């Protein structure tokens, strides 16, 4: 059964001005898409993030099989027509990606976030949230300082505790999903209801899960899965720290599939914005024009030019 997801706007007046409605959507978009480099040392390790109108950060992923359909969006064609799944994301992941696990120097947030200025606009970013994973040096601060003026230094113990809490929350979610799947088999669980009895697949918050010990095989399996999920949001040195916490070998996860990079997906999504598309395509020749020019050159090579003169020779003495 085909499923569709819609963004519904608030109720409009009885006689809405549709042109004004479209202009508002362009001037004040519901979502702002951007690319976040998880690890500056690995160019392919990027994620697509979205900032909504409430200044909350969301992780953007494509779900479903790749290349199953194409959608027409405005006047453009999106080759990858998979649905976009947006989930709330802790903005501190962005800050952790800029901090070094081996450095003891305090650095300005202005310098650390020079390429991600949108981070300061997020509603969840404040002095308390930053101090939950960093030590703040207030000796450099002016009287009327802002968050971007803070000098911070990574506190390894705080970040290890913060990462451990993320893992434990993921373990609880993975365990609850496994228990629900065992109780109610889902034949069409991507969105909505099952095909058999049309009951919702939403996890029941009233179900109490048993307490798990560190030696429980299910708990160990879910912990490995949780650490593997967080690998996509951490750069190398912090992922190594996370593996040390749970005594997991980094090499056991294997190599990352690079068949389709996140930067390629972002380029596909950014085709909605024609200004960005024109800026990216400026100065680049299409493959068709290259083939046509090479064909013209090959035809000129076959022409016999013996005895002919150039135009320049007629004007020379």
Model description:
With 317 residues, the protein is α+β, with helices and mostly antiparallel strands. The protein is built from ten helices and nine strands. A hairpin with a 4-residue loop joins strand 2 and strand 3 (57-63). Helix 5 (156-183) crosses helix 6. The radius of gyration is 27 Å and the shape is extended. InterPro entries: RNase_H2_suB (IPR040456). Residues 281-290 have a biased composition (Basic and acidic residues). Residues 281-303 are annotated as: Disordered.
Secondary structure elements and pairings:
Layout: H1 18-27, E1 31-37, E2 46-52, E3 57-63, E4 71-73, E5 76-78, E6 83-88, H2 92-98, E7 107-108, H3 109-112, H4 127-131, E8 134-137, E9 151-154, H5 156-183, H6 217-230, H7 236-245, H8 262-269, H9 274-281, H10 287-301
Antiparallel strand pairs: 1-2, 2-3, 3-6, 4-5, 7-9, 8-9
Helix pairs in contact: 5-6
GO cellular component, one term: nucleoplasm
Region (Disordered): 281-303
Biased composition (Basic and acidic residues): 281-290
Helix segment tally:
10
Name the helicity range.
25-40%
The residue ranges in which pLDDT falls below 50 over 5 or more consecutive positions are 1-9, 186-212, 256-260, 272-284
Gross morphology: extended
SSE topology string: HEEEEEEHEHHEEHHHHHH
Distance between the termini: 82 Å
The largest pleated sheet is described as: 4 strands, antiparallel
Rg, Å, rounded: 27 Å
Trace the largest sheet across and list its strands.
1-2-3-6
Secondary structure class reads alpha+beta
Query: In percent, how much strand structure appears in the residues?
Result: 5-15%
- The whole-number mean of residue pLDDT values reads 73
Q: How many β strands by DSSP?
A: 9
InterPro entries: RNase_H2_suB
Region (Disordered): 281-303
Biased composition (Basic and acidic residues): 281-290
